[in-house]
From TrEMBL, chains A, B, C, D:
Belongs to the glycosyl hydrolase 27 family. Residues 370-427 form the Alpha galactosidase C-terminal domain. It catalyses: Hydrolysis of terminal, non-reducing alpha-D-galactose residues in alpha-D-galactosides, including galactose oligosaccharides, galactomannans and galactolipids. InterPro entries: Aldolase_TIM (IPR013785), GH (IPR017853), Glyco_hydro_27 (IPR002241), Glyco_hydro_b (IPR013780), Melibiase_C (IPR041233). Keywords: Disulfide bond, Glycosidase, Hydrolase, Signal. Gene3D superfamilies: Aldolase class I, Golgi alpha-mannosidase II. Its EC number is 3.2.1.22. It holds the Pfam family Melibiase_2. GO terms for molecular function: hydrolase activity. This is Alpha-galactosidase. It is an enzyme of class 3 (hydrolase).
Length: 428, 428, 428, 428
């Protein structure tokens, strides 16, 4: 275990603004969701409130969920991005996110922000000086590294003098605000090889070093995926969580796909090191300026499947929906203490089998086995798993975590599953 | 034949500033080479004088042959690049390249410039308006198309309103200056497929349309290579010449490689449509601020091989060395009227054979066959080609174009060749 | 032009057994189709009758259109495949295909066969001796070259002694039978590079040499496609036709795809050198043992589109359907003498334009222009082409080749087209 | 842990015939090396004696280290390969490897063999029946799966009836011989995806099932590498060791490369599941028919580096040299009990760092840390590793395992290393 792992000895539980508000979230929405979390979720272990992309863009949301191209971003004289005051009024007078972080902390919660890797293009072309140096931002911008889907930043060239100083300067600022969690974007699905001029590895290492030196613990989350499996050891060494999927939304094919993503990454779930299946697109999401979005397109069995897979795989659980619009079913998905216990305190998960129609996973909390059975078909199905090899031939009582039903099992466990449904059993 | 082919019914013959001066060429050098051409080469058919990259960058050359990153380029209020006046004094008062073009024209020659595809990044971030419109340059910049090796421009997104208007505006300016030849860079080695967001095809088509509408004939040359053979029909339809190689310099492996590049492209040599083997790095090249460069590293036989291959393949011949420093041998390479006659008036070339050690090519001017024999080895060698299949069994007198030697041949032609050397025979 | 081109100065016109009978064709069917051709098509220029794959496999067809795996093939003591006598009774007593070829010749037609590149696996494992040598077939088999979809052969390793002797031995046999056309399979869609151990180029060259030395002219046709465009010059040098597509069948997406295949290959259509769009799946095809197949799934407009594209592109026309079951419409497609004239005597075709909805092509016979307009949409559409650039502004009478309708045109030509339909105009 | 892991709770230690005898090993050599192992190595934990490739080929070695193409292999009437009696006399009368295995067992050691995945081509073309069935071998051969470098076998098509029965039949035979270890070749560096017709996964699963059902424990080793990291979970589930490299020989670039291979695979070292760095090419290797080979080209420091990396990474240690020709230094490398203790009883290894010049690894036996420092340069160098993060700030005595030298360390450990050399410290 690395020192950086200690900030997340169990998978982070939290909320992120992207799935409900895209780039347009504002102060009221952040604090409103924080208040909800404090009241309804904190006692179940949830703690992070995370503001996603483009909080520094006054016009974010003007083009709905697309990004303004070549936008006029808010920043200080050192090219450090600042919250747009029209969206985050408490940031006025250079306060940044400190007032919001303070309020979130006062609720007993933690506060996180999203950043893009790199240096703002405007800071480069306006030749702003890196804080505490005489080096212009244009000298550290990489000449051949941009984000494919957003025009705000240039990548930072680790070979240039001032590169680390720039990253240090922004994390110094974030530490002064009281940030507890940083989701760094456009950095995780890049393959690093000796042959490529640009290497995401170098920027990840600069960010790690900046966090280690900023005087404040922060969870480091890397996006977007899919991460490259060959980089697993490097991600585990430098980050706390890294996305193994591209953006995940509320449709069955994406959920189905997560089964083979988890299959590939299963050996890499360790304390402080979590393959990340992305946010939970549950409840009220995709909300536009008129306040209207839609409730998740997942069926109830699919939502159970999602929570069961994330739960037993021990993925970070970051709710994506507007918490204040949760219905009772959505809330129940987030407050299943038995499942959360497994998620927080289990070990490295093991896929028992997977084919076109079904899958099964195993995990343990201490000596207690948990087995999840999944029906990947669009029709009801019976799914069984042999217990003999990995759990032995003893008799168990199987407690299903979503229904509380109990059955006696020996040698094999079987469940009748709804279309795209799942059950998860604790064997006692 | 397309209308655009008529501007180059024979392969362009000219000089380009890159091989000798890189990005740092100045007015005196342009005009000095033009004067040399008028005096020594014009009578042999040479006519184009071309100013290569970054004439709009005042500091070009400050970093020797590297490009300043994120440089402060000269441009008008519409984001159209202008010659840097410190390097091109006659461009003062908004005259642009007109005074230089006028002088070149007065010598009976033609004048060309290099441009990068795209719109200047500074014009984008400063939101300059496209000439004659109310559209800001930032609205036409492609969000995911930059040059891999130069930070001056963003690609232009053909799907955005104003994209064609921008290209029209710059070619209107070039026409007003009297430009005869445009070498467009960062546009030719890009694979265009339906799956890729960015397609070089679209920018090529906008440039073609802008030239056709600008009121002045201009040769359109596309760089850098290697061009993609699958795009051959598209290049032939829109351009007059397109690079089939990356930058070509004075070393044997690059020259050897050109043999298989020519092999692949041979069927595509047609009037007005020329696969381009890049400039001739002969004579005095790679000159830095102190005025010192080096004389081509090619041996004399290699220089003969180069001229012979370019000649019979009917590649455009664009001299790269400082003409005023030509020695007698270098000048002799450029003034072989028999070879130039073949280059200008031959047909589609045909490779007779090629293996690791030797190659042979055939072309015709009218009914007269020309055969070139190449020794690709580092030792002297005898190379033969059978004449029977393609030229028949008649008796010929073979006149070697570099030496004037004649021999009687029938059925087969044989030559003793120096290491990396060549001979080329006209059969009469 | 190479000597080998002279056997096919115009695109071959013929019939092939694959589309109607797959691997199971027999003597009666070959001769029956030949007789039909002699009676109905020969006067329009058709001449080749070609027996497709696995004529040496007694059980071909037993698994319908699939190939028996590891079948017991008929061959002589030198590993040369022989017609299965149960299917071709006249081949008895070692006569091979000579009796059939003789009959086809007597009708004034020509006879062709299909072969797989390589040496029979059975000849390898049974260590049969190559004719006229003491070399066992197992010494020339390539250790890492098999066909991906058929288990009959091993590739021949050009580096092994006996490799050329083997190919010579089989073409000597084919010449003795009177074969006029050889379709070599599993050889055309292989990319040849210096890095790959196996190179199709080497087998193509051995086959070319074997034909040149066998004492009889034969058209050399290479399959399957898609051929690699980078190999165009090599294919043009050694073969008469080469497939630019994988197997082509009677569905619109495949026909639509042919438009971009032709786009890419247009410059390579020359006398004796034809990019091959595959057989015409028209009329009665896909016939199984019970004698029942289906009539082409193409609509009538699609069939006109197919014939128009193949016609103006100057692809070889090889009918795939059972000729004796032709209806009047199918026969009319094969006997449009104006279209056949263009196909046989046109020049290198030129695509005027192509997008998602339409396409246009141009060709000339002598000075006479032909223009084909295509509607690629599923609804009726009007399609126009400008004549100005390539044909000039003169007044023409446009004669539509399928309907005979005439219209006066100047500067532009327009047609109302059926869904997926085409018209082709001769301008006089 | 899976049941199959129990046969190799610690990394296998043994000897394999390939590095010294290639395909030509014989009975005397197997038993001679076994006797040496029993006398000199067994007390240090070594136990496996493994006969490598082509024991069923009477002429193996005739072409030195190349494989005869399309050889006449020894097999029974069911297509099951048998030892060539000219090389293994005790195999006469159908005894197979039982007499040799019995003798090895009598020495207190275990016996292993190499096999190629698949069914012999001769069994296919001769249509031998699979044991206990009426199914011919030709029905289970895959139509598109051969080995790229050896012509003995066809892959087995898991979709065909009889496929599992064939694998069961050969493992039944191996169990009857008393085989303890099977190295399956041509199976490990194949990428398995849903898009590819052939999948190595399917053959691995059939082999796993055949071993599980054969009534005898056998270590399953998969070759050659490099294994695909995306398949790590599948390999861990079905095999005991899998090659992460192509064939490894005695040159520094290959050894250097192993550092990044181990880097990528480090998380996957678990009981019964070992990424395999290939045999140890130490001592007398590459022996030809005249009995002469060469002593390893590795320098002594490189040999120490090799053993140190394999040791701390917990790779299986399979000696490749002729044991009877070991010199004292070579023997000392194999009998360092402290290193063997770490190799056998350590945990999952962790790379501390790696760059172009140096590397460091950490492992633990229980609570005791071991740290290895490597000099990857060709000059002597000092290499240090910080202990603080992972081992803490306590004071330790560092015992170097190759020299026994001790030093006091705290917070950091430093070593002076020879060119390409290593040291490994136990911290007590």
């Amino acid at each position: 275990m690395y020192n950086k792992d200690k900030v997340a000895l169990t998978p982070p539980l939290g909320w992120n603004s992207w799935d409900c508000y895209g780039p347009a979230v504002n102060e009221e929405q952040l604090l409103g969701n924080a208040a909800y979390m404090a009241e309804h979720l904190k006692s179940h272990g949830w703690e992070y409130v995370v503001c996603d992309i483009q909080w520094y863009e006054p016009e974010a949301g003007k083009y709905h969920w697309d990004y303004n191209r070549f936008a006029q971003l808010c920043m200080d004289e050192n090219g450090r991005l600042l919250p747009a005051e029209n969206r985050f009024p408490s940031a006025a007078n250079g306060a940044g996110f400190k007032p919001i972080a303070d309020q979130v902390h006062a609720m007993g919660l933690k506060f996180g922000i999203h950043i893009m890797r790199g240096v703002p293009r405007l800071a480069v072309h306006n030749r702003l000086k890196i804080k505490g140096t005489d080096i212009s931002c244009h000298t550290i911008a990489h000449r051949n590294s941009i984000c494919a889907w957003n025009t705000d930043m240039y990548g930072v060239d680790a070979d240039r003098e001032g590169a680390q100083a720039y990253y240090d300067s922004i994390f110094e600022l974030y530490a002064s605000w009281g940030i507890d969690y940083v989701k760094v974007d456009d950095i995780c699905n890049v393959k690093a090889t000796p042959l490529e001029e640009y290497s995401a590895r170098r920027e990840i290492e600069m960010i790690r070093k900046a966090i280690d030196g900023c005087g404040r613990n922060m969870v480091l989350s890397l996006s977007p995926g899919p991460a490259v499996i060959k980089e697993a050891w490097h991600l585990a060494k430098h980050a706390n969580m890294w996305r193994i999927t591209d953006d995940f939304w509320d449709n069955w094919p994406s959920l189905l796909e997560m089964f083979w993503r988890c299959e590939v990454w299963q050996a890499h779930v360790k304390p402080g090191q979590y393959p990340d299946c992305d946010m939970l697109p549950l409840g009220h999401i995709s909300i536009t300026e008129d306040g209207k979005g839609h409730y998740t397109n997942f069926t109830k069995p699919e939502q159970v499947t999602l929570m069961t897979l994330w739960g037993i795989f021990r993925a970070p659980l970051i709710m994506g929906g507007e918490l204040r619009d949760n219905d009772a079913f959505t809330l129940s998905l987030l407050t299943n203490d038995e499942l959360l216990h497994l998620n927080q305190h289990g070990g490295t998960p093991l896929q028992l089998f997977r084919d076109e129609t079904k899958a099964a996973w195993l995990n343990f909390v201490g000596e207690t086995p948990y087995i999840a059975l999944f029906n990947l078909q669009a029709e009801p199905a019976e799914v069984s798993a042999s217990l003999t090899e990995l759990v032995g031939d003893a008799s168990y009582t199987a407690v299903e975590l979503w229904t509380g039903e109990t059955t006696a099992v020996q040698g094999e466990i079987t469940a009748q599953l709804e279309p795209h449904g799942a059950k998860i059993f604790k064997l006692i």
